[in-house]
Amino acid sequence: MGLFDAIDISASGLTAQRLRMDVTAENLANAQTTRTPEGGPYRRKTVILQQAGGGFAGQLAGAFGPSGAPEGVEVSGIVPDSTPLRRVYDPGHPDADANGYVTMPNVNPVTEMVDLIDASRAYQANVTAMQTTKTAFAKTIELLR
Amino acid sequence: MSVLDTTQLALTRAISGATLRGAVLSNNIANADTPGFQPSDVDFHSALEGALGEGPQAVEGLSFEPEQGPPVALRADGNGVDAEAESAQLAENGLELSALVQVAGARTQILRTAMGVTS
Prior knowledge:
heterodimer, A: 145 residues, alpha+beta, 4 strands, elongated, B: 119 residues, mainly alpha, two-stranded antiparallel ribbon, 3% strand
């Protein structure tokens, strides 16, 4: 348990929320993308978060004593959303099938905007937490004077 | 016999308790979007109160552990973090830590004066 644990924890929150914002921005940017390197239209991506310390090191530390020291949050993975892709009638589109339908990404801009606001608010909460901790620690360090 | 009296020992333990609590509350805020996460807290006030009743030895050897409250699910994904409540508690804890540090500092200053340390 170090003095700056709380700041590191808030930083892990900032990293995770920033990645969520990055992925949301990618989803929005690719809302109309019908061609990807893997073939087919773009699929919406979501970020899976998990509590940090669940890995091998955390389990090992837990086996030797009471685990409970918080370690923040980490990104477990970025997974594609498996909801069905949208079908749009647009016979003039180069990627239209024989019936004139184009398969479009399963990105809903409204959902993405809500996710973006959520991630941005969570980011701010972590910034505030970090500032509070920093102010308190600055006072502690003044004890040395 | 330590040079520090029980009050100073208690202040030191309270500072370490408040520091741990700050880390635990920050962890709750960082995990506000983690599915299934349940918030923890450190009740160092009660632990300290109990130890003060037992005597200086108990205070000196006091350590704190984060504890999970009864499970609450505020959202469909099983997450139980109330970000606003956690932020408020963290702000409160920060002020308390600053106050504790100031009191401990003032008491140390008195001790230094008594020892004849100048500056």
